[in-house]
Design a protein that fits this description.
It is a single chain. The protein has about 160 residues and is mostly helical. The protein has a single domain, classed as Arp2/3 complex 21 kDa subunit ARPC3 (Orthogonal Bundle), CATH 1.10.1760. It has helices at about 1-25, 30-50, 50-70, 80-95, 100-130, 130-140, 145-164. Helix 3 packs antiparallel against helix 4 and helix 5 (about 100-130) runs antiparallel to helix 6. It is globular. The two termini are about 30 Å apart.
Length: about 160
């Protein structure tokens, strides 16, 4: 019994580290569409393979790495806590909603992430910037998040469907 628990914990740790690494490396592609899709796919995979706690790690660590490594524009550093919160919301809502079906839970989770980021970006970035700069920065936290969230969900669904 203890051995199976130990193996399960190690498996979850390996999955969490691998998905966190993939999400942390995604910004190196330099394209928001690719980066966001990879990060969102990693969040959905973490929930499916190891549960909410793994997904929470995947939700937080890549944003910290992006700030430290400089792959996130400096003006966007103020958004990191909001990005983390929206990623955790996506993982939590998807975790809770999975019992109702993948394609009910995933879009609701993506919409929640989109709503959190859009609202927080509008408020935070308009408070610290002037004119079109805030609008341009806030736009990164809007529709692209919705699109990459749905693409990430679709990618994971395709991977799992292929496995079955």
């Amino acid at each position: 019994m203890a051995n199976s628990i130990s193996i399960s914990i190690r498996k979850d740790l390996v999955i969490t580290v691998a998905l966190t690494g993939a999400a942390a490396m995604a910004p190196l592609f330099g394209q928001q569409l690719v980066t966001g899709t990879i990060v969102n796919a990693a969040l959905f995979l973490a929930v499916l393979l190891s549960g909410f706690r793994a997904a929470a790690a995947v939700a937080v660590v890549p944003s910290l790495i992006a700030v430290v490594a400089g792959t996130l524009p400096a003006a966007m550093a103020v958004m990191v806590p909001h990005i983390m919160a929206s990623n955790i919301a996506l993982a939590g809502i998807f975790t809770l909603g999975r019992r109702f079906g993948y394609w009910l839970a995933a879009p609701i989770a993506v919409l929640a992430k989109f709503a959190i980021l859009t609202a927080s970006a509008t408020v935070v970035l308009s408070a610290i910037t002037h004119g079109n700069i805030g609008v341009a920065l806030a736009s990164m936290m809007g529709w692209p998040q919705l699109i990459t969230g749905l693409l990430g969900a679709g990618l994971v669904y395709a991977l799992f469907k292929r496995e079955k």
